Amino acid sequence: xxxxxxxLLREEAQRRLAESGVHVAPERLLxxxxxxxxxxxxxxxxxxxxxxxxxxxxxxxxxxxxxxPEDVLRGWYHSFTRTIFLVGDPRNLAxxxxxxxxxxxxxxxxxxxxxxxxxxxxxxxxxxxxxSALPKLPKRIECSVPGNQTRSAIRRRLYFxxxxxxxxxxxxxxxxxxxxxxFRGVLHPGDALELIHVEAFHDPVEPYDYLRVHADQxxxxxxxxxxxxxxxxxxxxx
Amino acid sequence: MSxxxxxxxxxxLENALNFSYLQAHIRKDKMRLLLAPIAVxxxxxxxxxxxxxxxxxxxxxxxxxxxxxxxxxxxxxxFDITSQTLGYWEYLDRVVGPIxxxxxxxxxxxxxYIQYQASPKVSSVSLAxxxxxxxxxxxxPASRRILEIWQGHYQxxxxxxPGLLTAKPFELSIDIVIERLSSRGMCIDTRxxxxxxYLDLTAQGLPLRQVINRDGQDNxxxxxxxxxxxxxxxxxxxxxxxxxxxxxxxxxxxxxLNAFGACVSRVVLGRAPLDxxxxxxxxxxxxxxxxxxxxxxxxxxxxxxxxxxxxxxxACLGRGSKQLFHFELLRQCVGRARRLLDASSMDTAPExxxxxLSSLASHDxxxxxxxxxxxxxxxxxSQLTRGLLSTVFA
Lengths: 238, 394
Known about the structure:
The complex is a heterodimer. Chain A is α+β, with helices and mostly antiparallel strands. Chain A has helices at about 5-20, 55-65, 70-80, 90-95, 120-125, 165-185, and strands spanning about 45-50, 85, 100, 110, 115, 125-130, 140-145, 155-160, 190-200, 210-215, 225-230. In chain A, the strands form 2 sheets. In chain A, strands 1, 2, 3, 4, 5 and 6 form a 6-stranded mixed sheet that branches. Chain A has a 5-stranded mixed sheet with strand order 7-9-8-11-10. In chain A, helix 6 links the parallel strand 8 and strand 9 (about 190-200). In chain A, helix 2 runs parallel beside helix 6. In chain A, about 35% of the residues are buried. Chain B contains 16 helices and 7 strands. In chain B, the strands form 2 sheets. Chain B has a 4-stranded parallel sheet with strand order 2-1-6-7, sandwiched between helices. A 3-stranded antiparallel sheet of chain B has the order 3-4-5. In chain B, a hairpin with a 7-residue loop joins strand 3 (about 185-190) and strand 4. Chain B is globular, with a radius of gyration of 23 Å.
């Protein structure tokens, strides 16, 4: 069992920065400071949303990420999995722009990871997604990672602390958690994922394979865990 | 040239002639036109830029009315529900307090507008009560005073008053507009997520435009659509008139109305630069150019001055904003106007006037104000002068 101390969170943040080749103190992520600059060639993904439905978003994010070639996914991961959420209707953009993935109901679309300047035209047409209200989230929701299964599927839980988050912030943390877990090989096609929404994490927490750490929005001088993905569940403790 | 090719060309020519004949024939029929110009918000003194727009619309309206049935749309509510007007009223009530607005001058109320614009903005929540009563037809006494002064200016300038003080409730609610736009994929509504509502014509390469912000406050574009969407089926054509600064917004409106089946023309007018600068009334700089000061600079009969204003602000300044407005130009136009009126002794045959107006309207169905006003300068049209002066420029 693990205690989520500030030291542990700091180490996790430092590890994540180092993976992108950024060797700065993880405190750089705190106090509302600008994130470290990765240069103009850093890759970013634009996610364009007309509406939000959790299951559609989960499925879309996992499908999109799993479908990316490994070198592209690596490049994006090393660019802090930078993602910009924009308001837009993929149905209206399909003729002018090509997307890496569009959900079946065409409410959400993902661009391929590319340097920001590649998407200047698309960005000019759209607005930043600035939804302030988090819709009522289900306590638990299950989904599976789409794609061709290459090993025996396993089951994990994703605990997510949504307290005090706007929808925009929620999407940012959820997106990082899902995409980075796919890159790290924690989530594989065929795996079952149970997303559990909580309003706090209580120490100690069960062993995890992915921890989403960032500045605490309520106290930006501290690190906070927004989500963690458990190890393989062999039994379900009640 | 082979015989076969000559025959094809002849046929093409014949078709082209038939087509233009058909077009001319169609255009001879009376159309129902709606003239929907942007309004000047009653928060300031009228300046040459405003007058240029008002005179332009007046000439277009009067000339086109001789060819087609044309309705001049005027509804205060559409443009009063802008944050700048509501904010001005809130500022007056909060900072200036109850004063005898009926005794205030246009200049004084315009100065208060400059002060308001320089003050910190209040939240849209503070404007909500004003927003609500304005939609029910309420008018702040300061703006009532300004509009009454403007009615006087309209009379002096010989402008048709389409109903400066008229406030009409919108036929369509916001939700119905959103529903209609959404059904055509032209709207994104993120209100349930605590977000905004946007007009979406990205399929045509136009950027998203917010019409309701996160606080639920709608803007003038939403009001304009509430006003104009029901008109699409009632008129053969809608003529929008706007400032250069609002070109993008009006392009969106035009495309939306097109999508609902309306035929739409857009007239875009540049401001009249004062002292070499194009700027909004909120920054001042207009104090030397009020209607009273402009009239004072032209010592002549009302008839001459009215024509001089039109020659100066329409024909000399033109559609764009490159030509500078200055008093010397206005005085020169007073001289030209006097000479035109003195020389216009020859009667104009009514059918000749009608033919001339039709030729000016052959392209857009409405008479272009610049072309008809600048025709007064042309010797070629001297036989039309009297007819034009007694109708369009009366």
